[in-house]
């Protein structure tokens, strides 16, 4: 079976840096605008497939400690993104496009924030691109820090645990039952995860608005006495 680009990239990460590279990717994708292109969902899921190996690499701790480290990387990434947005403010929206920065991504995150408010920080964890820029936008609009930290921690725990534990336990089940290794199917799994998490939200955001039908004006002389 020919390996796709995403599978090759994920396997390269796991084989060349493992846990440390995983922490760096999660940190970058959840707060640094240069990380918007990184496959965070697929990488977390793939890391769950080799979670025991990653734990053995890190002083042979239990895999729950690895998950805790990844959650911490996600939380810290969002904090850095919030701080960056808080300090740069509206000036960021005048920044010119570059290889690692696109205005359209920042504006999409801002529209998402305006649509869903504080819950954006939680929901954005499951949305590629949006999760990178959402904390930056939260900083730009100076979202209450305590509220931001609450949603940041809750979102990080839910995102990391759901992705990594799903990969870990589903892989064990399929291997024990059918001798199937999910790492060989990471390509379609990646696109499936993106579709499941992104399409419903984007549909509601951009296509779910009902058209407003204007009410025809009523002339005074048509009114009954």
Number of strands: 0
CA distance, first residue to last residue: 82 Å
The class by helix and strand makeup works out as mainly alpha
Percentage of residues in DSSP E strands: under 5%
Q: Which regions are unreliable across 5 or more consecutive residues at pLDDT < 50? A: 218-225
**How many strands, which pairing sense, and closed or not: the largest β-sheet?**
none
Tally of individual helices:
10
Shape: globular
Order of helices and strands: HHHHHHHHHH
- Please estimate the helix content: 55-70%
Mean pLDDT: 78
* Overall radius of gyration: 21 Å
Organism: Cnuella takakiae
InterPro entries: DedA-like (IPR032818), VTT_dom (IPR032816)
Main location: membrane
Keywords: Cell membrane, Membrane, Transmembrane, Transmembrane helix
What tags apply to this protein structure?
225 residues; mainly alpha; 10 helices; 67% helix; globular; disordered C terminus
Task: Give your account of this protein's structure.
With 225 residues, this protein is an all-alpha fold. It has one domain (5-206). The protein is built from ten helices and no strands. The protein is globular and about 50 Å long. Residues 218-225 have low confidence and may be disordered.
Question: What topology does this entry show?
Answer:
Blueprint: H1 5-15, H2 18-29, H3 40-49, H4 51-57, H5 63-88, H6 103-116, H7 120-123, H8 130-140, H9 145-178, H10 186-206
Helix pairs in contact: 1-3, 2-3, 2-5, 3-9, 4-5, 5-8, 5-9, 6-8
């Amino acid at each position: 079976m020919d390996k796709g680009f995403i599978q090759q990239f994920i396997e390269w990460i796991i084989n060349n840096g493992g846990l440390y590279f995983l922490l760096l990717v999660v940190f970058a994708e959840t707060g640094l605008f240069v990380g918007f292109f990184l496959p965070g969902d697929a990488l977390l899921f793939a890391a769950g497939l080799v979670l025991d190996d990653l734990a053995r690499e890190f002083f042979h701790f239990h895999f729950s400690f690895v998950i805790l480290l990844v959650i911490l990387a996600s939380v810290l990434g969002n904090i850095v993104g919030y701080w960056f947005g808080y300090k740069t403010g509206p000036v960021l929206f005048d920044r010119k496009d570059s290889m690692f920065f696109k205005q359209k991504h920042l504006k999409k995150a801002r529209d998402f924030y305006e649509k869903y408010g504080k819950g954006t920080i939680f929901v954005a964890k499951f949305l590629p691109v949006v999760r990178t820029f959402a904390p930056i936008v939260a900083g730009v609009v100076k979202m209450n820090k305590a509220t931001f930290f609450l949603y940041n921690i809750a979102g990080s725990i839910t995102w990391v645990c759901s992705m990594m534990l799903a990969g870990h336990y589903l892989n064990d089940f399929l291997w024990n039952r059918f001798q199937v290794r999910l790492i060989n199917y990471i390509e379609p799994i990646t696109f499936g995860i993106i579709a499941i998490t992104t399409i419903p939200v984007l549909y509601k955001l951009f296509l779910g608005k009902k058209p407003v039908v204007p009410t025809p004006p009523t002339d005074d002389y048509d009114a009954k006495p």
